[in-house]
Design goal:
The structure is a homodimer.
Chain A (H helix, E strand, L loop, with lengths): L5 H4 L2 H4 L1 H13 L1 E3 H8 L3 H13 L3 E8 L2 E8 L1 H20 L2
Antiparallel strand pairs in A: 1-3, 2-3
Chain B binds a DNA duplex through helix 5 and strand 3.
Protein name (chains A, B): Winged helix DNA-binding domain-containing protein
Chain lengths: 101, 101
Amino acid sequence: MADKQLHDRIDETIHQRTRLAIMVTLAGVGSLEFNGLKGQLGLSDGNLSTHAGALERAGFVKIIKRFRGRKPQTTLAITAKGRKALTNYINLLQGILSEAT
Amino acid sequence: MADKQLHDRIDETIHQRTRLAIMVTLAGVGSLEFNGLKGQLGLSDGNLSTHAGALERAGFVKIIKRFRGRKPQTTLAITAKGRKALTNYINLLQGILSEAT
DNA sequence: GCAAAGTACTTTGTAGTGCAAAGTATAATC
DNA sequence: GATTATACTTTGCACTACAAAGTACTTTGC
């Protein structure tokens, strides 16, 4: 009967602050290497690895594994689904925030 | 050397989705009874009680206990500090979100 | 008038999350 | 060829969010 509450509509995968930072960063540039993202956001290896996995499981980023020379290199790229989810999240938040001001 | 990262500047007390909903709701009306808030946001008693405590500990809301007739009645009221913290949070998020679009 | 049901919360127990430390695997350097 | 570095992943712990259970009454039958 009641509307779905605002806080129920917030996608927790994107709302988490570190993952939000990752998504916003990726939305700007499309894709970034593991270490580039790590440096830009000041994350530990393990932390980024875990959040990257969570975002991949949600289908919001694609994890591309290649070799640069002889070393492994992991790149995170935002997907169409991820971009859409971020846009939805942003629109929802904008709505909440503008109501609040 | 580096700037404080965006995700470090997000206040986790306010960022949590249920507490954000509480703060936004209170910002609109100033104060609400425990049960009013519970109904509007679709929360369980325990959940609201816990989050109210967290917001009080942060100084973002004041918990006022009175008797209406013979029954206890708890009211949550947003504080000046809470309003300021919400504004800061909103401004920060607006910044992040506008960069992302 | 006293037991049963209701009101208004708070506390407890559990499942899930976020994080850095430790681990794995390979490459480069000394 | 042993040590150090690179590029991550996995593990273990501390914390959080939540509903269920608990507390302290009050109101309503009977």
